[in-house]
Amino acid sequence: MLNNVIEVVAALIERDGEYLITQRTAMAVLPLLWEFPGGRVEPGESKEAALIREVEHRIGLTVAVTECVGDNLHSYDSHDVHITLFSCHLPSGCEPLPRSVGQVRWVASDKLDTYEFPPADQDSMYKLLNLYQ
User: Fold this and answer.
1) Other C-beta atoms lying within 10 Å of the C-beta of residue 95
2) Alpha-helical regions (H) of 15-118
3) Could you give the residue ranges of the DSSP H alpha helices within 10-102?
4) What domains appear along the chain, each with residue ranges and CATH number?
5) CA–CA dist 41, 54 (Å, integer)
6) Host H or E run for residue 40
7) Is pLDDT of 77 > 90?
8) Is the pTM of this model over 0.85?
9) What are the C-alpha distances in Å from 60 to residues 37, 88, 110, 131?
10) Which residue has the higher pLDDT, 133 or 10?
């Protein structure tokens, strides 16, 4: 039986072989961990609309959502997180800024495992980027 399920979306933004990740603030839940930019889906909101809203809030740019690349369900003790990852593109010539996150960073896929991600995000990252078998 599933716990309370929280719907979350995340943007997989690739540029020149590197992926955009953001660091949670010191005051956030699971502080200072890294993740792909995104956040919770509000009731009645589409996943794509939630992703555009959340990414703009976090890095100050409106992404173009191109396709769903997969999803993953992760169980915590008190709740489950259903995370859906979308391939996205940033506006041409624009750089992300840390608006409501600690830092933004471009990281090669073979270096992502050197950053600490929340368990739900880490499961999704490994599964969807085929970082381990």
Assistant:
1) 11
2) 47-59
3) 47-59
4) 4-129 (3.90.79.10)
5) 9
6) strand 38-40
7) no
8) yes
9) 11, 14, 27, 29
10) 10
